[in-house]
Amino acid sequence: MTTLTIEIPDSEKAVIFDFIKKRGGTIVTIEADDNLTQTEFDLLQESYKEALLIKKGIIKPVPISELWND
User: Fold this and answer.
1) Where are the alpha helices (DSSP H) in 8-57?
2) Ordered per-residue pLDDT tens for the chain, 70 residues
């Protein structure tokens, strides 16, 4: 299954939701949070860039076994 993020006008929301549900998709709505600090925003940007590099195979992800290695 593919995950797709789109922005649509509120007036079209019901039509698009119906279209997706009829084809077996699921809807996950995320409300905008404009209360991010600049530091939080910078960390999100950096995380996104890193995720893209991992997806492209340029860098390797950190194995989960190393994340919780006490």
Assistant:
1) 13-22, 38-56
2) 677 778 888 898 889 889 888 988 888 776 666 777 888 888 888 888 999 999 999 999 888 787 775 5
CB 4 within 8 A of CB 12: no
CA dihedral (11, 15, 20, 24) positive or negative? positive
Domain ranges of the chain: 35-62
d(CA 24, CA 13): 17
What is the model's pTM?
A: 0.45
